[in-house]
Amino acid sequence: MIGGGRRATPDGTGVEALDTIKRGMSLSPEIRRGMLVTIALAVVATAGRVIIPVAIQQVLDGGLAEASVDMGFVGRMVVVSLGAVAVTAIATGLMHLRLAVVSEVALSNLRVRAFRHIHDLSMLHQASEQRGVLVARVTSDIDQISRFLQWAGLMILINGGQAILSMAVMVAYSWQMFLTVLALLPLILYSMRWFQKRLVTAHLVVREKVGRMLGALAEAVAGAPVIRAYGIEDRVRTDLDHVIEEHRAAGVRAGGMASGFSGVSEILTSAVTAGVLVVGAVLVTGGDTSVGTVVAFMFLVQLMILPLNLLGEAINEAQGATAGWKRVLDVLDIPPDVADPGDDGVSLPTGSLGIRFEEVTFRYPRPGETAREATGTTALERVSVELAPRSHVAVVGETGSGKTTFAKLATRLMDASEGEVLLGGVDVTRVRFSSLRHRVVMVPQDGMLFRGTILENVQMGKPGVARAEVERAFVGLGLTRWLSELGQGLDTQVGERGSSLSVGERQLVTLVRAAIADPDLLVLDEATSAVDPATEVRISRALDSLTEGRTVITIAHRLSTAEAADRVLVFDLGRVVQDGPHRRLRREEGVYRHLHEAWERGAIKYPARSG
C-alpha cells in the first residue's frame, strides 16, 4: 500500500481530516519545501495591514490638537502608512507567486503518481471501476486541491495571521474593549466548528457525484453510435439527467450550508462591532482611553472579524480539498494486485519461451480483495498445461468458458488466485515488467489505437524505432499495398481511438505494432472475427509472417484458426476438457466436435454461459 496512516472516515473531520492532509502533504514534498519563506512573507503582509490602524491612532491622538494640526507628524505617518502598504503588496504578490508555482509543481507530480498507479491496477479492477470516476480523481479532485492551495490556503495564512496580530494590538490598546470581543469570540468559533462538520460531508458527496457524472457523460459520448443505432436516446438522456440532478442537488446542499455560515458570521460580526462601540464610548467619557484608540480599535476589530467571515469560504474550499485529497489517496491506497517486482525481479531467459500452468485457479475478487484472497466466481479451476516454445496453440470454448482469462494470466494482465504461471521456467510474478512487456505481447480483438498517425501508433511497440524499420515491417507483413492506398501512408491520422480507420485496418496497424515489438510469446485475440473477406485475407497473410518462429496463443472465435494450429486447448466451465491437434479432436466425441460442427453450420446452438 502506498502511504501510511489511517483511512479517513466519511465525515473527514477531526483527527481523520488532519491525517488526510498530513498524508497528502507527505506525497507532495514540494509543498513543504520553502514553507518557512512563504510563512515569513505572510507575516510581513499581515504586519503591513495592522500598521494602518496604528497610524490612524497616532494621527488622531498626536497630530491633531484642538486649534492646530501638526502637518509634519501627519506627513510622516502618511509616508509610513504608504510604505507599509507597498511592502504588504510586494510580500503578498511574492507569496501568491510562490504558492502558485509550488502547488502546480506538487499537484502535477501527484497527478502523474495517481495516473501511473491507476495503470498499475489490474485490468479486472479497471474494468470494475467507472472510467469517469478514475479520470475525475486525477483531474477535478486534484484541481480542487489546487484551488485550495492557491486561494483558500493563502487566505488562511494571511487572514489567520492578521486576526492574531490584530488581537495582540487590541490587548495593548484596551483590555476592556478586548474582553468585549473575547466574550463573543467563542460563539463565532463554535458556529464555525458546527458548520465545518457538515460542510466536509456535503463536499465529499459533491466530489462523489462529480465522478459519477463524468463517468456517465464519458460513457454516453463513447457509446453515441450504439445509442443512435438502437434509438435509446431518451433512456440515456434520462440517466444523464438523473446523475446531473444528483450533482446539482449535492452542490446546492453544500452551497446552502456555506451560505448559512456566512449569514451567521455577518450577524455575529455586527454584534461584536456594536459591543465594542458601546464600551469604547463609555471609556472615552470616563477618560480611560482616547478617541484615536477607539477609532483604531474599530479598525482592528474589522481586521480580525473580516478574516473570520472569509474563513467560512476558506473552510468551504478546505473541506472540498480534503474530500478531493481523500479520494486521490483512496486510489493510491488500492494495492496493485499485478505489481511490478522492479529491482527485486528477474528477467526472462533468452531464447524462445515456453509457458506452463501449474494447478492454476482464478476467482474474481470481491471489493477489497486481492487476487490471492479472491472468493468470487471461479473463471478457471485447477488448470495444468504446458505449451512448448515456438508452438502455435489455439484456445477455443464457448463464451465464459475461461479462454480469455487463460490468455490474460499468460501475459500477466491478471494474477492467479492459486497455482503458478511460468514463462521460460520462471514464475511470471517474479519477472520485471521491463522484461515481460518486451518479450510478451497481447494483441486484443478491438485493435485499440491512439490519436496520432499510423507511424506513431506502430512506434509504441518499440519506442524510438526509426521510420525505415517501420516501413520494413510493413513490407515483411505484406501490407505495403494497403498502406499506399491510404494516400498519406505512415502519416495517415487514425483519429480518436482509431475512428478514421475501419475495424480491419485498425487490426492491421496493431499487428505491425506487435511485429515491431518482436516478442517471443504472442497472444492473439482472434484478429479476423469481425472484418470483411478482403481484409481477412490481408490479416491472415500478415499473421502467417508475424507468428513464424514464435510461441503463439490464439483465442479462436473462428475454428478455421484452430484447424491451422499445432494444438488446440478446449475450455469448458473453466477447465481444459480436451487437448490435442484439430484432426484428432474432430474425430473424438466431445465439446470440440460439437463446437466445430455447429461452426460449420454457421451457428452455435449452445447458449452462452456467464463467468
If you had to describe this structure to a student in words, what would you say it looks like?
The protein has 611 residues and is α/β, with parallel strands linked by helices. Helices cover 63% and strands 10% of the residues. The chain has 21 helices and ten strands. It has a six-stranded mixed sheet with strand order 6-7-8-3-9-10, with helices on both faces. It has a four-stranded antiparallel sheet with strand order 2-1-4-5, covered by helices on one side. Helix 7 runs antiparallel to helix 11 (291-333) and helix 8 runs parallel beside helix 11. The longest helix has 53 residues, at 233-285.
**Highest-level CATH class of the largest domain:** Mainly Alpha
**What overall form do the CA principal axes indicate?**
elongated
- Find the CATH superfamily of the largest domain: ABC transporter type 1, transmembrane domain
Per the CATH scheme, the topology name of the largest domain is ABC transporter transmembrane region fold
Overall mean pLDDT stands at: 78
Helix content: 55-70%
Main sheet overview: 6 strands, mixed
Strand content: 5-15%
Distance between the termini: 29 Å
CATH architecture of the largest domain: Up-down Bundle
So how many helices?
A: 21
Biggest sheet: strands side by side, in what order?
Answer: 6-7-8-3-9-10
- Number of E-state strands: 10
Helix/strand-derived class? alpha/beta
How many structural domains can be distinguished in the coordinates? 2
Radius of gyration: 34 Å
Poorly predicted sequence stretches spanning 5 or more consecutive residues: 1-14, 603-611
